[in-house]
């Protein structure tokens, strides 16, 4: 794991939706979900066609997400491009 300087930005958040917020509004589907640890936004992963989690990062610069899949426990920093 990389020494990430963005961990201090992590907040206690409430998930914004039970699925990808944007895909739900569009009536679209996703592969896996990511939760922004800065604001709680739920977006679809980069394996999904819409890539809403990454689009959220580019729009907000919120660097750290975690998997929103029940069987996965990991976090990713978009800026450092590594697991944290």
Instruction: Write the H/E string, N to C.
Output: HEEHEEE
- What's the tally of helices? 2
**What is the highest CATH level, the class?**
Alpha Beta
Largest sheet: 5 strands, antiparallel
Number of strands: 5
**What is the average per-residue confidence, as pLDDT, rounded to a whole number?**
96
What is the second-level CATH architecture? 2-Layer Sandwich
CATH superfamily, called what?
A: Zinc/RING finger domain, C3HC4 (zinc finger)
General description of the model:
With 84 residues, the protein is of the alpha+beta class. It has one domain (7-83): Zinc/RING finger domain, C3HC4 (zinc finger) (Herpes Virus-1, 2-Layer Sandwich). It has helices at residues 21-26, 52-60; strands spanning 33-36, 42-44, 64-67, 75-77, 82-83. A hairpin with a 7-residue loop joins strand 3 and strand 4. It is globular.
Quick summary of this structure?
With 84 residues, this protein is an alpha+beta fold. It is 18% helix and 19% strand.
Strand and helix map with partners:
Elements: H1 21-26, E1 33-36, E2 42-44, H2 52-60, E3 64-67, E4 75-77, E5 82-83
Antiparallel strand pairs: 1-2, 1-3, 3-4, 4-5
Considering the chains and any ligands shown, give keywords for the structure.
84 residues, alpha+beta, Herpes Virus-1, 5-stranded antiparallel beta sheet, 5 strands, 19% strand, globular
């Amino acid at each position: 794991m990389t020494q990430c300087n963005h961990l201090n930005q992590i907040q206690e958040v409430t998930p914004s939706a039970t699925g990808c917020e944007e895909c739900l509004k569009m009536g679209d589907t996703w592969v896996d979900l990511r939760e922004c640890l800065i604001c709680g936004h739920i977006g679809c992963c980069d394996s999904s066609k819409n890539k809403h989690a990454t689009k959220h990062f580019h729009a907000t610069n919120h660097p750290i997400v975690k998997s929103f899949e029940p069987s996965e426990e990991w976090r990713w920093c978009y800026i450092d491009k590594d697991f944290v």
